[in-house]
């Protein structure tokens, strides 16, 4: 009887243990089979993000985030022309003033008239905008007589801000299309996105070039300078025999040329004279022939 009781208790313990193991196994299986909520939410976000990106790709960016520089952008340029007694000294003064104020000589032309012995210089200079007035004052104070002076000032602040905003908006648009390209699965969609990216990149490069040009014009002012010597006297090589003989030959040659061209210009009269002479000779021959017949 005692043995039977022990066996019954052992059987009940084994049965209870099996049931607990079965319940734990079922719980583990249910946990493994049920999808984690985080992964489910991430999957839903991945499915929704392409649609959201495609709907927002063509939306313009916020202008307030791209406009940060509101300082005035001023372009100064002009031209000046004056007379000087010593053009070389005037040029040296201009070059020295440019070096002192941080400018440079962009273009230079020199002309010399051999007949009047008159020289003229044309310079195109670039100087930092902050030193433009100082350079102009130094130049005008060292000149004897100013023929003309024209200074033009342009405010390009609005244009500067618009170009920067255009670059910023297109760069943001480019990033959105790059994200779409990374998620594209079809070749046709990928090619369409690449074409759009190429167009956006061309627009960005063009606007960046315009912005660089405006920045250069704002940073450095330009001035066209032209100066000349006083009216010189004709060059005189002397009053000797050689000089007079040379002038006589030149004058005689000019007279011969003038006579030749005068005769050429009278060609209609020459033709009329030749025709008249031909008619007179023919008339005389006929008259002689008639006189011979009568005799």
Mean pLDDT: 76
Strand content: 15-25%
Number of DSSP E strands: 5
CA radius of gyration? 49 Å
Domain DUF4349: 72-280
Organism: Mucilaginibacter angelicae
Keywords: Membrane, Transmembrane, Transmembrane helix
Region (Disordered): 37-70
Question: Characteristics of this structure?
Answer:
295 residues, 5 strands, single chain, DUF4349, 3 domains, membrane, alpha+beta, five-stranded mixed beta sheet, DUF4349 domain-containing protein
Describe the structure.
The protein has 295 residues and is of the alpha+beta class. The protein folds into 3 domains: 2-56; 70-235, no CATH class; 249-280, no CATH class. The chain has 9 helices and 5 strands; from the N terminus they run αααβαββαβααβαα. It has helices spanning 2-33, 37-56, 63-66, 87-101, 132-141, 157-183, 187-219, 241-265, 267-294; strands spanning 74-83, 104-113, 118-128, 145-155, 220-228. The chain has a 5-stranded mixed sheet with strand order 2-3-5-1-4. Helix 4 packs antiparallel against helix 5 and helix 6 (157-183) packs antiparallel against helix 7. The radius of gyration is 49 Å and the shape is flat.
Please summarize what this structure is:
This is DUF4349 domain-containing protein. By secondary structure, the chain is α+β, with helices and mostly antiparallel strands.
List the helices and strands and how they pair.
Blueprint: H1 2-33, H2 37-56, H3 63-66, E1 74-83, H4 87-101, E2 104-113, E3 118-128, H5 132-141, E4 145-155, H6 157-183, H7 187-219, E5 220-228, H8 241-265, H9 267-294
Parallel strand pairs: 1-5
Antiparallel strand pairs: 1-4, 2-3, 3-5
Helix pairs in contact: 2-6, 4-5, 6-7
Protein name: DUF4349 domain-containing protein
Organism: Mucilaginibacter angelicae
Biased composition (Polar residues): 52-69
């Amino acid at each position: 009887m005692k043995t039977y009781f022990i066996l019954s208790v052992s059987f009940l313990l084994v049965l209870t243990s099996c049931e607990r193991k079965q319940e734990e196994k079922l719980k583990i299986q249910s946990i493994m089979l049920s999808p984690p909520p985080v992964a489910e939410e991430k999957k839903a976000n991945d499915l929704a993000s392409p649609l959201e990106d495609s709907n927002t790709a063509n939306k313009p960016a916020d202008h307030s985030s791209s406009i940060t520089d509101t300082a005035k952008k001023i372009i100064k340029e002009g031209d000046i022309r004056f007379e000087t007694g010593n053009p070389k000294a005037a040029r040296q003064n201009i070059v020295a003033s440019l070096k002192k104020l941080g400018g440079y000589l962009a273009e230079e032309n020199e002309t010399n008239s051999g007949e009047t012995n008159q020289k003229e210089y044309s310079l195109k200079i670039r100087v930092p905008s902050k030193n433009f007035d100082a350079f102009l004052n130094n130049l005008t104070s060292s000149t004897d007589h100013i023929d003309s002076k024209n200074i033009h000032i342009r405010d390009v602040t609005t244009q500067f801000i618009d170009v920067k905003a255009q670059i910023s908006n297109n760069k943001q648009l480019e990033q959105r299309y790059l994200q779409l390209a990374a998620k594209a699965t079809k070749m046709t969609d990928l090619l369409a996105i690449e074409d759009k990216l190429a167009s956006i990149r061309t627009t960005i490069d063009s606007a960046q070039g315009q912005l660089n040009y405006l920045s250069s014009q704002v940073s450095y002012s330009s001035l066209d300078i032209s100066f000349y010597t006083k009216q010189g006297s004709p060059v005189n090589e002397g009053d000797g025999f050689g000089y007079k003989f040379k002038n006589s030959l030149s004058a005689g040659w000019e007279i011969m040329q003038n006579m030749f061209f005068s005769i050429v210009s009278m060609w209609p009269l020459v033709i009329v004279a030749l025709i008249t002479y031909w008619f007179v000779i023919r008339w005389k021959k006929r008259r002689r022939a008639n006189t011979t017949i009568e005799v």
